[in-house]
Amino acid sequence: MNKVKLNEPYEVGDLVVYLTDDNLAYVSDYDCRYELTTTTTSCDCCTFIFRSRVDSKFQCRHIKALRSLLGLD
Ligand SMILES: [Zn+2]
User: Fold this and answer.
1) Fewer CB near the last or first residue (10 Å), C or N of the chain?
2) 18 Cα: distance to centroid of ligand 1 (angstroms)
3) Beta-strand relationship, 36-39 and 15-19
4) CB 25 within 8 A of CB 66
5) What's residue 2's pLDDT?
């Protein structure tokens, strides 16, 4: 696995992922006004909040971007 540096912006598809911790990232989305706080299992975007109520394993594209950056998927 490539070592991902902390506090460096990485472009993952349409997203910019900025890792602040081994498990916590700030994610900027092209159509979002706010930076999202994303971990490998949670995200504060509306899609995740909505979908995770009915599917506890749901991964939004921010979680997927973070997981792929970390080499988890
Ligand atoms: Zn999300």
Assistant:
1) N
2) 14
3) unpaired
4) yes
5) 61
How do the domains of the chain map onto residue ranges?
A: 9-69
Q: Concatenate the DSSP letters of all residues of 47-70 into one string.
A: HHHHHTTT-TT---HHHHHHHHHT
Task: Identify the three-state secondary structure at position 46.
Answer: helix
Ligand 1 mean position, distance from CA 3 (Å): 23
Predicted structure pTM score: 0.89
CA neighbours closer than 13 Å in the CB half-sphere of residue 56: 0
How many angstroms separate the alpha carbon of residue 39 from the centre of ligand 1? 9
If DSSP codes are grouped into helix, strand and coil, which group holds residue 37?
strand
Confidence of residue 3 (pLDDT cuts 50, 70, 90): confident
